[in-house]
Fold:
Amino acid sequence: QEGLEGMTIGFSQIGSESGWRAAETSVTRQQAEEWGVNLQFSDAQQRQENQIRAIRSFVAQGVDAILLAPVVATGWEEVLSEAKDADIPVVLLDRGIEAPEDLYLTSVASDQVLEGRVAGEWLVETVGDEDCRVVELQGTVGSSPAINRKQGFEEAIADHANIEIVRSQTGDFTRALGKQVMEGFLRAENGGQDICALYAHNDDMAVGAIQAIREAGLNPGEDILVVSIDAVPDISPAIAAGEANATVELTPNMAGPAFEALAAYLNDGVEPEKFIITESRLYTAEDDPEGEAERRRDLGY
Amino acid sequence: MPDPQPILAASGIAKSFLSHKVLDDVGIELFPGEVHALLGENGAGKSTLIKILTGAYTHDAGTITLDGQPIHPRDTRHAQEMGIGTVYQEVNLLPNMSVADNLYIGRQPMKWGLVDTRKMQRDARALLARYDLKIDPGAQLDSFSVAVQQIVAIARAVDISGKVLILDEPTASLDQHEVEILFEIVQQLKSQGMAIVFITHFLDQVYEIADRVTVLRNGRRVGSRPIEGLSRMDLVTMMLGEALEHEDAMRIGVTRKPGELYASFKDYSLSGKAAPFDLDLHKGEIVGVAGLLGSGRTEMARLLFGIDRPDTGQLTVAGKPARLNEPRDAIALDFAFAPEDRKLDGIVGDLTVRENIMLALQAHRGWTKPMSRAEQAELADRYIKALDIRCTGPEQPVKFLSGGNQQKVVLARWLATNPKLLILDEPTRGIDVGAHAEIIRMINRLCDDGMSLLVISSELDEITAYSSRVLVLRDRAIAGELTGEAITTSAIMEMIASEPEARPQ
Amino acid sequence: MTRSIFSVVKPQFVALIAILLINWMLFPGFFNLFIRDGRVYGSLIDVLNRGAPVAILAIGMTAVIATRGVDLSVGAVMAIAGAVAATMVQGDGNALIVVLAAALGVGLLCGLWNGMLVATLGLQPIIATLILMVAGRGIAQTITEGFIVTFNDPGLIFLGSGSILGLPTPIIIMLTLALVTTLVMRLTALGLFIESVGINRSASSYAGLRARSLLIGVYAFAGFCAAISGIIAAADIRGADANNVGLWLELDAILAVVIGGTSLMGGRFSIPMSVIGALIIQAMNTGILVSGFPPEFNLLVKAALIIIILVVQSPLAGRIWHFAARPRTKRPEVSPK
Amino acid sequence: MNPRYWPLIATITIFVLAYALAVMQFPALFSTRVLGNLLTDNAFLGVAAVGMTFVILSGGIDLSVGSVIAFSSVLIAVLVTQLGIHPLPAFAITLLATTLFGASMGAMIHYLEVPPFIVTLAGMFLARGLTFLLTQDSISVSHDFYTWVRGFYYVMPGGGRLTFNGGLMLLVFAIGIVVCHRTRFGAYVYALGGNAQSAALLGVPVARTTIGIYAVSSFLAGLSGVVYSLYTSSGYPLAAVGVELDTIAAVVIGGTLLSGGFGFMLGSLVGVFIQGMIQTYIVFDGTLSSWWTKIVIGGLLFGFIVLQRIIIAASKRDWRKKKVEAVRA
Ligand SMILES: Nc1ncnc2c1ncn2[C@@H]1O[C@H](COP(=O)(O)OP(=O)(O)OP(=O)(O)O)[C@@H](O)[C@H]1O
Ligand SMILES: Nc1ncnc2c1ncn2[C@@H]1O[C@H](COP(=O)(O)OP(=O)(O)OP(=O)(O)O)[C@@H](O)[C@H]1O
Ligand SMILES: [Mg+2]
Ligand SMILES: [Mg+2]
Structure:
């Protein structure tokens, strides 16, 4: 890939809270290497103020472009206009923001509501007309993926009275809490007999929950359907073993399209599309889960 | 003659802590222009009564009147506003703040809504000058010795008091000179018509300054008498409930023959704290250490016990060279040290009397060899009896004991280790007459058993009573030594006072 | 006797039972226990099982707090120990005993480091352990490279989700550790020494205690406990999640100790009561899980319960209780102010 | 030189030294732009640190500040966008609410005799929980007033901006310094930190002071929420997670003893700068992985604190020799 050699690009990453996030970071590094870009990396440890600080420092350093994976959708106007005043293009990664569109070059992101909807539609299709009591493992309360993925899923099942979310708790996107909260669900729902499906906002919580289901003497994937989001490699063995049924892909390769857009813009002045939406594909046991897991290893996992 | 109308009066005061009745139907009347000594054994309830009068504790029953009006002091601030100034027994000041802050907290001079620090310091300097104390009022309080802090506390209380001044053992760590100054000021206040309450265990001071005494015993009032015509013997009998055996062996130290050399400190020094000195301590010998405030007595003791490490010096114990890096090493050599500041370095407040007594002995044995419960109980009971420690039992947290009884607990801790060299820094501070005699007897007995003692005391009578040798410190150096018949109060005073220009500047 | 009922019946037990009863009201099956495959299941067991990691942290934390310290790094040490165990067991197939020894050893080292900073350099405990709290998670992530390192070693997994005598292994580990620690503290003079140093370090060293070694030892023990907790947490999910394991758990552990009645100003401590404190916290969490409240209420419920416990435990409530119980006594007072 | 000033001097020296070293590595760090950013980006931390300094000086701790900041920013956002209230009255309502919140924590601490750690931990849960009740979403605030405030800055030579927020933080510190060192309230705070029991005996109004301290801390946390709101023009329920630890660290790095009674307000400002410097330095470096970032932050923290200890220890040795002494005429 050409067009960005020797350029310095700042990357403000949210943190390293999950395997997916770590993969996104390493893909970005790989991509930067391939493009010959000098990547200034900054980890914000989950804090918006650190991201703002990082962008300001990037501007002070005079980088050529900035990649920003925003921790939250709001609150970027001021600092992005500073970047704009300094003529530094900003590309948003993996989620959009609420700010005037002229403040950033483009946004490379998935549609989080769509992810939830894809998962919901899968469930609607799978259970058909049968009654289905669903338990939901939410992400961190107040985080945008949790809000959007919940919303999308609810939209998908809204017209299907037979499907109902009976319990919903936060598992903080973590495996340990996924397991612990699922245990609680199983206790509260008649040892799990009354649960038909589990919807988890990410794969990690699903992996934890699957263990809980198994330890409760039920068969995950059969007695309780499991659908989640992200398609990280760790869910693949479970899908292959039939313990998880479906997952929605969220690619960690956001940097590839971002660099392409930047190269075109910086060299040829081509304005890219404002929203580059990555695919939200559904993966099930039919999609060669083991091979998929292998392929994903290249994606920085 | 006291005015018939008392300034401050209390009657029927009762107070219990949990189920333990500390004061029972106690009363006191303070008349204008009198110095009223409040006396009693350790744990009699003197400090508790003071705290009730000044609003630090609430009382269970009884009334307090000020100028004939009943008052209910909510807290000490309230009492201060009513013109009652108090020095509580343990120095209750703020070690982290400046001297001036301590003198004026709560009533700082203000200018434009802000504290006028400059005026405050000026006032502080002037106030302390009355006590012959020339210190920097901006310096942090805990950079000064206990004695200086005591004077600061007194200066504050005197300054606050408009009607009543209460002093709870103010002279416990003061030397003669300070005591004289304090008494001058008390006389002055008295002539202005104030009432002064004075708690002490020094009967000489009672006779010197007091007009009347009230004696408490076991939380009850034994009686109030004018001091005139009250004999010493009667007073002691009032306090103890029995006559004190006459102390016949007033000069025991003189006749004692020192035994073999036990510990020998050679060329010990620590810059800024102790000039180089040599010190030989023999078995069966009591070495008294005298000196003025800040003359470095405590510093010497700290060096001898390995709390501070000397810059130079060698130590030989029982003929073998030894080194002291920390108190543990000293304890391993069978040294023991009862420090001067019992609140800070002595008692472990939340632990029980039993645990406090066994602590050093247990530390000596190591944590893996715990004493059995029976052994602990026996040890505690033995010392509670031997030193007459007044407590509800060995399981009472030591912080609830009266000041003098806490001091006894610290002594007991060290006696329990059966030391060969015992260093005592102001061992009788705050201890009542009965126990005082008992402790001196005990020091003698220990010495007869071959223990070597080094005793620091501001009470020259005490030092002359039992010492077989006296070291006089001046300006952090040994200024001289007295032995045998030469040990007299006046000889010590003379030695302290010589070369006055060499005092610390 | 003027002693109030609160000094006879520990308020912690009252709180625990009250919360369990509330849970039972919200979820009638709360006290149901059933046995499957020779193992007991039920919400009550969940409380014990899920409370175990915090309880184990609290055991170590109790000793630290008794010396007037605090250890903020335990969560990070959990992550490090878990990461070490997972990478070693999954990588070269080391024997379980070696893996465990290494993980526990690393925890001990972390604790020693904290202890040195506090006792030798004289740093303030909160800031000394904050250093490892920040850096430790980074160290753990360096070991796992930011991913969840999963493993399938049955021995290690047993520590998280196996059972002994019908009870989940973490419960057994927790109870054993609590028992052994309590016995060591109380049958030797160690407990007394720790309390003494916590109350008055200066007086303690005058009395010949090795205050410094004791402090170092206490932090090392806390690190050791954190390592046990980290191993259990990793074994539970069959993977070391260095990013998230033990996150903010140090606050729970401190809360458990304080609910258990040990003062943050040091001194008297009780290991069993700290364990009860941890169980109170977990009972709240489990109650929230089974009650079906929306998750945005979690924090409110927790805050409300803590405040209620505090009010009930406070000396003021004791005085009021006492006053109500014997209205005829004059001006009762439990402790002077 | 009064020995009490040594920790402060040590902290300032270390900051200047560290900044000089960093500039040698990255010359771009030496610009008014970076200094301006240091003020602006740490403004909310600084404002909260002023309150925390009072709390820590009094021997307490306040774990609720992070949550209170988030609560304030969200409450303002809700008031302004959903109820259409002008930001200024919204600020006033918020500050009133947080002040009352702090005062009730102080009252619990004093009257129930519960350790501040636990009360404020419950406060931390409560404030964050209330925030979630208000909204789970982040809310953008766009109001002319915000735009006006944003346009309100002074451009320093070299292009750096002294923003409203940065200025406000300096002002709050200035007031904090005066209150801390020159008022009775300030003296009471030190007194409580020195020895609460003695303070009570000396007539310090303990109840009033304790309640006041936590009210001030929460008021300033609320003000910090206002600053955060202006800074990001939004309310975000997950904002400022863990800021309480940063604030505590800033105060302690600034030379204040956590056990209470010793320290200076100015030190906290330097502590805030040191923390900001560490973050900025790491961004400028730009090569550290996520995990090495944490390790390096821990390492730098360690370095600062140890250096501070060494300087203080060295000064103490010097001071012991010239110890202030009682001198009699
Ligand atoms: N806070 C407390 N809790 C329980 N008991 C207490 C408390 N304070 C004092 N006491 C008890 O009250 C009794 C009287 O104590 P107080 O301090 O008044 O004695 P004192 O006469 O001042 O003795 P001393 O001469 O030793 O100072 C003692 O037995 C002591 O144990
Ligand atoms: N425990 C201690 N730690 C540090 N410094 C101390 C300690 N004890 C005393 N000092 C300091 O040593 C100096 C002199 O001590 P001090 O005045 O106690 O001497 P002293 O001769 O023992 O007199 P006295 O004990 O009668 O007051 C004082 O400045 C004091 O601050
Ligand atoms: Mg007394
Ligand atoms: Mg002395």
